Amino acid sequence: MTLDAAALKKKFLSGSIGLTLISIFLGFALGAIVLLAAGFNPLEAYWVILKGIFSRPKYVSYVIIYATPLIITGLSVAFALRTGLFNIGAEGQYIVGAIVAAAAGYFFKLPLILHVIVAVGLAIIAAALWGGLAGYIKARFGVHEVISTIMLNWIALYLSNFVVTLQAFGKQGTGKTYAIQSTARINLLSDWKISEAGIEFIRSHKMLGDVLKSPINVGFIFAILLAVLVWYVLNKTTLGYELRAVGFNPHAAEAGGINVKRSMVVSMLFAGGLAGAAGAFQVLGVSHRIAKLAAMEGYGFDGIAVSLIGNNTGAGSVFAGLLFGALKYGGSKIQDAMQAPTEVISIMIGIIILFVAMPNLIRLILTIKANRASN
Amino acid sequence: MTAIDFSQKTVEMINVVKKFGDFVANDGINLTVHKGEVHALLGENGAGKTTLVNCLYGLYHPTAGTIRINGRELNVTDPNVAIQNGIGMVHQHFMLVEPFTVTQNIILGRETTKLMGILDLSAAEKKVAEISERYGLAINPRDKIEDISVGSQQRVEILKALYRGAEILILDEPTAVLTPPEIQELVMIIRNLTQEGKSIIIITHKLHEIKQVADYCTIIRRGKYIDTVEVDTVTEQELASMMVGREVSFAVEKKPQKRGPKILTIDNLVVEDNRGIQALKGLSLELHKGEILGVAGVDGNGQSELIEALTGLRTVRSGKILLHNKEITGALPKQIIDGYNIRTIPEDRQKRGLVLEFDVAENLVLETYHKKPFSWRGVLNHPEIYQYADDSAKEFDIRPANPYLTAKSLSGGNQQKVIIAREVGNDPEVLIASQPTRGLDVGAIEYVHAALVEQRDRGKAVLLVSFELDEVINVSDRIAVIFEGKIVGTMAAEGVDENEIGLMMAGGTS
Ligand SMILES: Nc1ncnc2c1ncn2[C@@H]1O[C@H](COP(=O)(O)OP(=O)(O)O)[C@@H](O)[C@H]1O
Ligand SMILES: [Mg+2]
Q1: Which of A174, A157, A156 is nearest to A165 (CA)?
Q2: Which has more confidence, B427 or B375?
């Protein structure tokens, strides 16, 4: 029995999950050193972060809200990567999804659920085309997707800023668009929350009431559903089989009769659609509008990190997105509580990614340790 | 072969065991090599030969057993320890930096420097030239790796080991990548090395090579030590039987041919290679049902381009390909596979043949995953796929018979069996086999040849492309000789004059 446990431990450590957890641990350890060097007590800082994540139901709810778009852009990057494509363009696809969702949410007058479906659907289609364009350019002209998606990101950013200035859409002088119709929102009980009964409820119910103080919305549920969808498509369908074959070895896929170029386009369509969904849920559930952007918001870029930490799988993206959301939200609290720089959180995330990207280094460390132990 | 100094044992591996998890790759292997000796390691693909020499070179740690170098027990913790103790290794896959010169590659990692860390390239070049001269390696120290042939690259690897002071040289399947003349050069080099007192451990499947260069031969079968024999005292037949564990027949057994009507016509085909240079310059061929047509020729005369044109992977500039008198020129790979039922065993099994990261089952359905029963309405039917893979693994003797293993983890011979199971298992009208036995051991070769002959006996057409003239002559019914992108002669295989074909392959006229 003990032998089995040892074997299990070995499997765990050499597998990707173990490596990821070790990377996360190392990220925290090195983050502590950085904090120490900056003159802060790392234990205190981590305690503040931990409390900032878990001490109130509202905080947990915020973590989930933070995590939702990151999970979905993570799925977008992961999906493309499984076909061997590096979707740096999740950022731009996210922006396109957000624009379309905001426009559909504001201009259309539709009944409750239908409005959401239409807004999300249009956002996904537009972002899918945005992503698919990069796939097409690669398939047709051989332009590397990293180049084309970076360009498309900037085009999307300026398109968004332009849209905000339009008379019909942008609230002049505010740098924002008009808020979407209430029928397009995916928040839970938002009307009821500000009714008398709702206020009374929030006051009298500690747990649920606290949760309701955050802009809790159904986006997270969709994120989970999308993760399941990604897993299903990649592993259970002929389409996923084709995409993975192309990702692993396009030469063999081609010889086996798979249309490699078509696969590139399809993969980027999917990836774009996913990133667009992230933008749509953010608009319908959190911001309710889009605003002029001074720079990229980074949801798409964070998706790259989420995908990496999540080992490019559906479930991994959910886990990594939550970790990311927690660190971003909880980490922001060390600023107020200790006047410690939140940049430490970014450094920590960076370190985690660095180690995740270097599994061989960690394996090496582990085997050296194992050899020492056995000698 | 008189250079052996029996008083000096340079390598002793005693009862070496190497386990990967529960799998025992080496199960108590013994190997003794003397100074000046050429010792061959013989075993089927996956027998554990590479694993054994990796243990010697410090790439793996033996689970149990003793290694002695020059009589001294040694714990080879990593390749640096091996190199310090005079062990050098030329891997199956070369480890050279393409854009670098020969010398730059050789000194990589142990650069000699002048004052202030400036590379002293000329001193290194001189030494490289010296070693090359001494052993007849014919290497120019300033050539770039990307500009020299595979055979030369291999000699650079040998040179690298010698430069680092190797007294014991391990060659892992060195002849697999060489042309026949290059093999003869290698044999000469090995002789030069042993004359100078070096010990050589050479891994090969080719029995006549063992007979030609080796003094002793250790046979390994499925990880187990079988025997060590003095090569002069055994026949190739005996070696083969020891290796496979049963009688092996070298002759390809064929029934009398029942030649059917013409099925595939290649008419005046012109195709360019990757550099845009004409590789096929008006090639014409006819293939009949119930026959194996062998294309003989030296590597690089348009064989790869011919296969790629036939499989839809390369654009045809002019000329026609006809199947049953219907033109199929320019068809897509999928059409050729599904529509015309032309299947291919590709020349490069790791590049074109397999998705190495996929498991065996996924590889087996690479051309049929979109069909019933493996999928329905775009959803894969995994139970069917793995059931089929289970059956195929049994039918085609894929070892280990586990459809969940990745293709990467299989030995070369078993990887080839996966491809054959896929291509032959789909009952093709025309089977194209390109270098189907490259790098395989005799047991596997026998198997592949039998599979090709069976197709022919069932009235199907087989186009065999091979650089091994023996193979073409033994397996084919008819032989076409390819030279510089054209067929320069076609003849019946029976009673053919080997020298005549050899001459045609080299561009001579008969
Ligand atoms: N690193 C490894 N992990 C697990 N199995 C391995 C590893 N290396 C080799 N094997 C297995 O050990 C067996 C022997 O492999 P190898 O020594 O490469 O055979 P050979 O060189 O004789 O063809 C094969 O079944 C192979 O799959
Ligand atoms: Mg080997």
Answers
A1: A174
A2: B375
Residues near ligand 1 (Cβ within 6 A): B 20, 23, 25, 43, 45-51, 409, 411
Say yes or no to pLDDT of B347 above 50. yes
> What are the tens digits of pLDDT across the range A57-74?
889 999 999 999 999 999
A181 falls within a domain = yes
Chain B CB within 8 Å of residue A245 CB: yes
If one counts the domains in chain A, the total is 1
Q: Could you list the residue range(s) of the whole structural domain that residue A227 is in?
A: 67-306
Q: How far is A75 from chain B (nearest CA, A)?
A: 21
Structural domain includes residue A133 = yes
Q: Distance (Å) from the C-alpha of residue B104 to the closest C-alpha of chain A?
A: 27
Q: What is the three-class DSSP state of A310?
A: coil
Token pair recorded at residue A143: 């332009």
> What residue ranges define each of the domains in chain B, with the CATH number in brackets?
5-244 (3.40.50.300), 258-341+430-436+459-510 (3.40.50.300), 347-427 (no CATH)
**Contact yes or no for B441/B414 (Cβ under 8 A):** no
d(CA A355, CA A341): 23
Predicted-assembly ipTM surpassing the 0.85 threshold? no
Lowest-confidence pick of A131-135, B106-110, B431-435: B106-110
Per-residue burial over A239-264, b if 16 or more Cβ lie within 10 Å, else e, is bbbbbbbbbbbbbbbbbbbbbbbebb
Minimal-distance CA residue to ligand 1 atom 16: B48
pLDDT tens for residues A315-370?
999 999 999 899 888 888 888 888 877 787 788 778 877 777 676 566 666 666 65
Query: Taking Cα atoms as reference points, which of B195, B227, B196, B181 lies closest to residue B40?
Result: B227
- At residue A129, what are phi and psi to the nearest 5 degrees? -65, -40
- Could you list the beta-strand ranges (E) of chain A: 170-171, 176-177
Q: How far does the centroid of ligand 2 lie from the alpha carbon of residue B44, in Å?
A: 9
Ligand 2 center–CA B439 separation, angstroms? 9
Using a CB cutoff of 5 Å, list residues around ligand 2, an ion.
Answer: B 50
Q: Which residues of B touch A257 (CB under 8 A)?
A: 332-334, 336-338, 367
This prediction's pTM = 0.76
Residues near B243 by Cβ (< 8 Å), separated by ≥ 6? Answer: B42, B43, B44, B47, B219, B221, B226, B441, B442, B443
CA quadruple B158, B159, B163, B168: dihedral positive or negative? positive
* Alpha-carbon distance values, A212 to A64, A220, A285, B232 (Å): 13, 15, 13, 88
Q: What's the CA gap between B193 and B166, in Å, rounded? A: 11
Asked if residue A348 is part of any domain, the answer here is no
- DSSP labels for B116-147? GG-B-HHHHHHHHHHHHHHHT----TTSBGGG
* Cα distance between residue B445 and residue B207, in whole Å: 12
| Closest CB from A236, A237, A248 relative to B355 | A248
Contact B375 A252 (CB under 8 A): no
Q: Does residue A172 fall inside a structural domain? A: yes
State the DSSP code for A249: -
CA B474 to chain centre: 19
Kind and range of the H or E run holding A3: helix A2-14
Q: Which residues contact residue A146 at a Cβ distance below 8 angstroms, ignoring those fewer than 6 apart?
A: A86, A88
Q: Torsions phi, psi of B136, nearest 5?
A: 65, 40
More confident residue, B261 or A6: B261
**Winning range, highest mean pLDDT, from B18-22, B44-48, B106-110, B187-191:** B187-191
Confidence at residue B110, expressed as pLDDT on a 0 to 100 scale? 66
Q: Which helix (H) or strand (E) holds B66?
A: strand B64-69
Give the containing element (helix H, strand E) for B283: strand B278-288
Two structure tokens written together for B223: 């990880």
CB B392 within 8 A of CB B384: no
pLDDT at A3: 47
